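Homework help board

Subject: predicted structure for assignment chain

Our instructor gave us this sequence and asked us to write out the predicted structure in token form, then describe one feature. I got the tokens but I'm not sure how to describe them. Can anyone check?
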Amino acid sequence: MIEESAKVLSIKENWLLVQAQPSNACGACHARSACGQGLLSRYFNQTPGQISVENRLPSGQTLSLKEGDEVIIGINESSVLSGAFFAYMLPLLFVVMFAVLAQGVGITAEWQQLLVIVSGLLLGLAVVRFILHGNQRHLRNMLPVLLRKAAQTEKISLTEL
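My token output:
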């Protein structure tokens, strides 16, 4: 389970709007200039994401929370991998398949090859949508879930020391 801390922004019925807390690790990482995550966060002004999660633990219990509380949310590693497969690999496989098919049939004009490849991409995306639309259980497993309330650490000012 991949875990991340988040701050509760609002509570509506049984749903929480939470904002992921930005990680300090990206700023100190030596690979930040070559990292895709670092580049995307700089491009999008490092704005933390806001998502809705159900106020229900995996055990079925609900937590008594208020705005400003910190919680731990999580998502299965297998969900991340299958999500990446459906979002990237399956459409890419269709693109490669259609490119090989275009070459095999003897299509040599670039605009025709491009047309066939774009058709493959669109068909791949349609297949992904069809697979995921018909499998609601799989989609629910890709959503983050509430794991627990974050441990409250008491902050001590320097004057108290």
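Reply (TA_rk): Your tokens look well-formed. For the description, you could write something like this. The CA atoms of residues 1 and 76 lie 5 Å apart. That's the kind of observation they're looking for.
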